[in-house]
Amino acid sequence: MEWRCEWCEKPHEENDPPCDNCGHGSFEKAVTQVNHEVVPGGTVWICQDCGRSHQRNSPPCKRCGSADLQLREGPPETDPLDEIGTRWLDVLEPKYVAGYAVVALLLGVLLLSAVGVISLPTLGGPDGPPPVPEAPGSADSVGGLSLTAVEDAYVAELNERREAESVSALGRNATSDEAAAYYNKATVTDAAGEGDGPDREAFGRFELPCDQPSVVSYRVAPERTGQPIGDFENETALATALVDSYVERGNAFSDGDTVGVDVHAAPDDTVFVTYVVC
Lesser CB count within 10 Å: N end or C end of the chain? Predict the structure, then answer.
């Protein structure tokens, strides 16, 4: 396979998002990792910073931590630094003694905390859902159309299509709306070169109604709808065109009871859509 989903890594034959497994809206080139094994007397990987040789291309360097290893053909050479050892007296230098003292102090504090003598503040990662990024374009209105009204019309149109396919209708969920907004805005900033895209761990901090939500994310350019946003008669017409764009790609509807949706218009009139089903 030449392409794979950036979110769930499912392989695909063509670069035609969204992913039919998780609904993510962008693919990346699939890369096959090749491990170059050492042929005795033939191949070796050399650190370009300190010169240490390695049997495999597995950075970082075991000596200096550099990630720059380079393949070299030919018999292995003797690394003069490998002959340099560390004596017991070396570890008694002041810089090492100070480091040992700091480690001992930290271990003592942790031990006192464990037995209840002292209390430490809770250590951990970020708490709560991530903030919704500021994305270029508009999240409110475009071409005289309210994007909030487009989102409402989108859910109504989506439910009509689902019921026509004998799939249950979805109720709107506020937390899922916020999660969809985070995912969609992060996708817009990534497309504009102003961000890194949605983060899986951050997305998982939303308290969604289910453990394994289905995320559908895609973009619709004016060329696909045949007209710029400002030429749509009303919000319902735009929402219908956005649902059409998803269905025309042959995508199936995910089972669920609730949905959150976000619609964002980029500066070039491309419309980004993300909805989260639980």
Answer: N
Q: Is the pLDDT of residue 271 over 90?
A: yes
Name residue, tokens 């919704």. 132
Q: What residues pair up with 29 in beta bridges, in sequence order?
A: 3
Residue 177 near residue 261, CB atoms below 8 Å = yes
**Strand, coil or helix: what is 231?**
helix
CATH of 132-277 among 2.40.128.90, 1.10.275.10, 3.30.1370.60, 3.40.33.10: 3.40.33.10
Question: Do residues 273 and 154 lie in contact, with contact meaning Cβ atoms separated by under 8 Å?
Answer: yes
Kindly give, in sequence order, each residue whose CB lies less than 8 Å from that of residue 183, ignoring residues fewer than 6 positions away.
198, 203, 215, 217, 262, 274, 276
Structure tokens at 47: 């650190």
Q: Which of 170, 167, 206, 166 is nearest to 186 (CA)?
A: 206
Measured CA angle at 52 (ends 96, 79), to 5 deg: 100
Residue pLDDT, tens place only, 189-247: 999 999 889 999 999 999 999 999 999 999 999 888 888 888 999 999 999 999 999 88
Nearest of 239, 215, 245, 249 to residue 159 by alpha carbon: 239
What DSSP state is assigned to residue 229?
A: G
Contacting residues for 91 by C-beta, under 8 A, at least 6 apart: none
pTM of this prediction exceeds 0.70? no
HSE of 259, CA atoms in CB hemisphere, 13 A: 23
Which whole-number Å values give the CA distances from 277 to 116, 245, 246, 250, 255, in the listed order?
Answer: 45, 18, 15, 18, 8
Q: What crossing angle do the helices spanning 235-247 and 147-164 adopt, rounded to 10°?
A: 50
- Sole residue written with tokens 């570890």: 91
If one counts every other C-beta atom within 10 angstroms of the C-beta of residue 209, the result is 16
